């Protein structure tokens, strides 16, 4: 008989998933949207929430419908694409970018203000990163303990501190919203839409899938159908939390300009806003929040990437992969936050559109009868412009690319891949009809039904 779990257990799983998604890097983007968008904040946040939050739930559902792992989902395009996309995705969400970024952000906000007047801060970063990543390894060692450690202990602590910070900013606002800046003046929604990429939560949903399903299994749930139901229920709890959090962060940013002026990044906005709201104790409040959200992100990412590589290279155990990727993350961390952040945009501009395309395709699978050519055509169309956007962001042939491909609608706004993706979709559909490709439908249980 299939074991059932209680609402309180689902709530704990939802909190765990919320903790995994909510990282130190996530809370620094919405404040910048608020600062820059000013009176257009809510329009910009509409776009931000689509890519930064709304698509997360769709990604969770898409993962359950697509076979439970990102490899199976991407494999609908081609096995080689699945391999390349998955490896790049897991490495980005793990040792190459997210773990170093998170560790560096925690250091910059929670530790650096305490040591910045002293010499040799690179030594402090090395010492801190060694301790922080060692703690990450310890908490990642046994994935079946994730719910107890993240969902029941760490998450409630930083949620309470965040609520205190947010409540103070609402009841004693720092100031009024300023005038929109730059792209937020006339293109606030699309600008917010692309800024939502930087939360990386849609990509994280793909990465966390395997480790999350393992955690559900620790409750004795074995049925794929039941795991999917719990996955979605816990996902709803996570989404509600993320929406409330990101809107609150945008509010803090938008209302902070009168007191602290415009800042270069969201970490500065939060740190200085906390000081305005609470005085010197504010830096300890925001520092604790960033420290706890940072450790949850690092634990989730390190465990997920290690679990994935154990799956594709089983000769190396999960715990050995933990050590390998933790050491790699430690090395990259000590290049400094600015160096790490320069790697972010091009990678995200490449991966995010492809991830969104896969989500849309899995949801519309039965409408186009699951024809493989539709998957291939759409991904080629999306990937072509995504590569161009990544090259532009990396300052490679930017003017040449703009001159040649600027005619594509929405290209200037970083959304030209939508147009080329639609073209690729219909070209793939035409090819599928001409070749009379097999039908591959997905039923309500997320099971594949193949027909000739």
TrEMBL record:
Keyword Aminoacyl-tRNA synthetase included in the entry's annotation: no
Keywords per UniProt: Amino-acid transport, Cell membrane, Membrane, Transmembrane, Transmembrane helix, Transport
The keyword Membrane belongs to this UniProt entry's keyword annotation: yes
One GO process term, biological-process aspect: L-leucine transport
Cellular component terms (Gene Ontology): plasma membrane
Pfam families given in the database record: Branch_AA_trans
MF GO annotations: L-isoleucine transmembrane transporter activity; L-leucine transmembrane transporter activity; L-valine transmembrane transporter activity
Membrane topology: Multi-pass membrane protein
Principal location listed in the UniProt entry: membrane
Transmembrane segments: 7-30, 42-65, 77-99, 123-141, 153-175, 195-213, 234-254, 281-309, 321-341, 347-367, 374-391, 414-432
Subcellular location: Cell membrane
InterPro entries: Brnchd-chn_aa_trnsp_Livcs
Sequence similarity: Belongs to the branched chain amino acid transporter family.
Function: Component of the transport system for branched-chain amino acids.
NCBIfam families named among the record's database cross-references: livcs (TIGR00796)
Protein name as it appears in the record: Branched-chain amino acid transport system carrier protein
Species, as recorded: Sporosarcina limicola
